[in-house]
Specification:
Layout lengths: L13 H13 L4 H27 L5 H24 L15
Amino acid sequence: MHLSLLAGIILPFVGLILPVYIWFTKKDSSEYANQQGLEMINFLINVFILGLGATLMCVLIIGILIVIPVLIFAFVMPIVASISCSKGRHFKYPLIYRFIR
């Protein structure tokens, strides 16, 4: 589920639709899948807000300094999450606000 976030690199909206679809179909069969799905959705919301804010701040030039760390965070954290989940550990994305609980 976490690695499917990276599908957006190849096909723009697939990285959003595919993970949400996987979570939606698996959430009732496993509490672990539900918890990780909610964590992933919170990550998506946070990255979207950060990306939007950084893009708007590019008008002020300072946003360029923010866009690069946001992109790195959005690329690396799903990989870290999937490695942790493959070992059966519960994973919580760091530095995000949890909109959905």
